[in-house]
Write a structure and sequence with these properties.
With about 280 residues, this protein is mainly beta. Strand 5 and strand 6 form a beta hairpin. It is elongated and about 60 Å long. The N terminus is likely disordered.
Length: about 280
């Protein structure tokens, strides 16, 4: 069904740079790709309205119509590390951070194409528009999940959280995130730098560990950016005093300085084996 939609609307395409540098896809399309902005690609409704439609369906029921939803990514069940082994992604979107969410299941990238690398995966807090059919999924245990499935992303407004308001320039002896990413050119895949670096950036997404994990390990995984596009994923970093003790010690939009080694994880810059040594968060 979606293939037919693509065929109908190709006349409405225009060229635009893809945010965050996707590389080259299977058809050899470079960083500038054709992005669809058609008028006939689905019925445009809010996420809350889509959830209501899903809940009114019979168990396992699917709409015959295609819907277009614009929302904020509030959770990713597909990690960037899983790409390209996993080529379709699963994530959840809502109208805002406090609203109910819908699961976008088996979703393809722009132009209904497969995801090629981890940098294409939208981060928590990003804004995008996706099309697909709506369904009411009921698990064997009876849990109901409203879903938009078998769809694809038609535009990405922001690859990072709207909380990104710019990042202060790094101080002497520090790097910004883009400078840290450039270091990957000299680090082999799955290898880690011998040197430790100080990197200044703004928190644009974070994984929330369970309370027991936070109490036991005291580390947090989050992503930082210095330009609102490119990002580095800080993996299980500790607090400067040894352990994080509460979630609110690090929030979206905080400016932080991390001191860590850098790992090249399938082309993703991953500061690891280190600590957060400075933060704008008063609870830090």
């Amino acid at each position: 069904m979606l293939v037919a939609v693509v065929a109908m609307v190709m006349a409405g395409c225009k060229e635009t740079p893809y945010i965050n540098n996707p590389g080259v896809n299977n058809e050899g399309i470079p960083d500038t790709v054709t992005v669809l902005y058609p008028d006939t690609d689905g019925i445009e409704i809010s996420v809350d309205s889509a959830i209501a439609i899903c809940m009114a369906l019979p168990e396992g029921g699917t709409t015959s119509e295609i819907y277009k939803l614009r929302g904020m990514v509030v959770g990713n069940s597909t990690h960037p590390y899983e790409i390209p082994a996993k080529r379709d992604i699963n994530f959840s979107i809502s109208d805002n951070e406090c609203a109910s969410n819908i699961s976008c299941y088996y979703t393809k990238n722009l132009n209904n194409r497969r995801f090629q690398n981890g940098k294409e995966v939208p981060l928590t807090g990003s804004r995008l528009t996706v099309v697909g059919v709506l369904t009411k999924y009921v698990s064997s245990s009876g849990n109901i999940t409203p879903e938009l499935k078998d769809g694809f992303i038609i535009s990405i407004d922001s690859m990072v959280s709207e909380s990104f308001k710019g990042c202060p320039e790094p101080k002497e002896g520090e790097l910004n995130v883009n400078q840290a990413i450039q270091l990957l050119e000299n680090i082999e895949n799955k290898a880690t730098s011998t040197e430790t670096y100080k990197i200044r950036g703004v928190v644009v997404t974070r994984d929330l560990p369970t309370p027991s994990d936070l109490q036991q390990y005291g580390n947090l995984t989050f992503s930082i950016s210095s330009d609102g596009g490119s990002y580095a994923t800080c993996y299980r970093l500790k607090h400067k005093n040894g352990k994080f003790t509460a979630y609110n010690q690090l929030e979206l939009g905080d400016t932080v300085v991390v001191q860590a080694k850098i790992q090249n994880f399938n082309g993703i810059c991953e500061p690891t084996q280190g600590n957060v040594i400075e933060s704008s968060n008063p609870n830090f």
